[in-house]
Amino acid sequence: MQKLPTYYLPMEKNGRVVIPKPIRDAFGFSSAGFVRATVTDDKIILESGKTVCKFCGNESVLCEDFPICPECIEKINELNELKK
């Protein structure tokens, strides 16, 4: 992997930080994808993440365009049945 410079990233009031394009490109982050954040004692590790369920974070989604896992789809269907 190419050597990238150190970046000092501004944080917005709501906590949002923009990952610079050279870093996104080097690690394969896509604008429509997810970033996996893992917190250790004194570090935050960001990794290119798989598509996960929008509701529970499960990695077994049926379709990347509409990321919901089978379990959440079942719960939604159950709730819809209760409303009838």
Key structural traits:
single chain; alpha+beta; Pemi-like Protein 1, Chain: D; elongated; 2 helices; 2 strands
Give a verbal description of the structure:
- The protein has 84 residues and is of the alpha+beta class.
- The chain has 2 domains: 49 residues, Pemi-like Protein 1, Chain: D (Ribbon); 33 residues, no CATH class.
- 25% of the residues lie in helices and 14% in strands.
- It has 2 helices and 2 strands; from the N terminus they run αββα.
- It has a two-stranded antiparallel ribbon with strand order 1-2.
- The longest helix has 14 residues.
- The protein starts with 20 loop residues before the first helix and ends with a helix.
Would you kindly provide a brief summary of this structure?
This protein is α+β, with helices and mostly antiparallel strands and 84 residues long. Helix content is 25%, strand content 14%.
Indicate the topology.
Elements: H1 21-27, E1 34-39, E2 44-49, H2 70-83
Antiparallel strand pairs: 1-2
| CATH fold-level assignment of the largest domain | Pemi-like Protein 1, Chain: D
The SSE order reads: HEEH
Helix content: 25-40%
Structural class: alpha+beta
CATH architecture of the largest domain: Ribbon
